[in-house]
Amino acid sequence: MLRDFGVKGIKVQEVVSLDDELLAFLPQPVYGLVFLFKWREEDPDKLEQSCPEGTTSNACASVALLNIVNNTPNIELGEPLKQFKSFTKELSPALRGDAISNFTFVKEVHNSFARNMDMLNADLHMKNEVTAKKQSKKSKSANADEDAGFHFIAYVPVEDHVWKLDGLERQPQRLGSIKSENWIRNAKPDIEARMAEYEEGQIEFAILSLVKDPLLELVPALAENVKGLQALASHLKSISTDTKNCASLGDQQGCVVTNTLMGPDLNIGLTSDVIEQAKVASSIESALHSHEVSDVIASQEELCIAQARLWTSVRDECEAQRLDVEKANARRHDYGPLAIKLAQILARRPIDGYGTPKSRSKKQKR
Description:
Helices cover 50% and strands 13% of the residues.
């Protein structure tokens, strides 16, 4: 969804625990958290009708994502969201909610993930809400857990404070000042208090983090590595008088392992321009000024080992992105017609041992 919004450089990653030891494994920086939980209505008079009823239907997740990316500096939003952010900058939270409701671009992206069954469920939910309002508060309270939906809340650091951005509240809530880089500590008490409301064994909540895309650092690091290997190969060629023990890689000569990347790879965005703009690592400067072949080869081997580690991380991230795209495409595909057709076929097909009533009676007589 973020990619369709035009946002770049952000990865969504699940948070399995709020323990500091596990949070340390999240890619840094963490731009924000999204807390998903089963919502129970509290005091309607204290709620702001901006989410879910005042915005695009069932759009709490979209609103939570927008709350984070619009409050995160130095990320690429894409032109539609840039214009929306500029237009709504001076508006109140409620008016921003109304603006989202009328923002066709967000609606189209949000609804592109909905199937026909989701639309029907939304209509049914709206019908149930109208019916519930006609009933007494007592009856409404009794059915609250059955009709409760899921709600999304965003937690985001803005300047020197951590904020809770909830579409059901009238104003953002400041949770505290940021005293260290680990701003999540300020959000933990609020999240854990909500989690404590559930009985043991009930898992009706989840936490997602919006973090910096690791490829934004992996690709430049790989470019620096490739440029260093190119420089070492060129230097080795100029000083070596005996290269019979060295492997030839294209136009380069050097003692490097097979399958070592020595040039651009457009599949991961590693272009010639990116390699050209990269700086040669200071760790190989001495080898580039050495006239000893062994020194140059040793530096090459070190860069080859480092590149193997980088490639492992790059492949993992690319595979994760590919799986995300597959899941998104599967989420968008409507399997309802297929399920209905299969049910119709099975309904017309007799099951072994159960024929027509007449055939069953004949078997019973025999």
